[in-house]
Amino acid sequence: MATLTEQASLWQLISPLSPVGAYHYSQGLEQVIGLGWVSDEESLLRWLEALLLNVIAGVDLPVICRTHAAWSVRDEDAVATWDGVSRACRETAELRDEERQMGAALGRLARELKEPFPGQVPGYSAGFGVMTANRNIAPDDALGGYCWAWCENQVAAGIKLMPLGQSGGQRILSRLKTHLGSAVSAGKNCRDEDIGAGMPALALASTLHERRYSRLFRS
Description:
This protein is mostly helical. Helix content is 68%, strand content 0%. The chain has helices spanning 4-14, 29-35, 41-72, 76-88, 93-112, 124-134, 139-161, 165-176, 180-189, 200-210.
């Protein structure tokens, strides 16, 4: 069982106070709402469930697992390899920029906290694996924490973009948390050759969002 200090190290990393800029990004949600694909609490829940159980469980979590293991033995080449896989799975320029920019912010945080970090700075998901390895956070806890932080950020974006309200956001989080175990299990057991699950609707929404005239979010 993780010590309270180790648990707090994970909480610190996934906290909204972590200076990685997650609040700048909606991962296509702004465009999805603009197109009317998501228009209320129930449709937002369905969209987030699909992303969590496909993209997050099929790309982010397997990469975190592998970079966590690689960095635990300081294998920078393996970290770079899996970071390359992660970036290749981002289907639009803004999603690749998000991965790169948040990874760079995580690297700056590691330096400021005097934690080791690869010289070739990885993107965010690979960097998250590195940081959780630094802090001796168990892989299952790291994956669960990443999922929860992602859910919180997406719901926060939804609250800003539609008349959802804080209570509606909490209802969605209460239902999303029931999928965390499934997402972590799928990510942990994903084979190398199966990494890369995506959603065509996300790629389309992100492509359109890149050309949006005005927007609140970078993705």
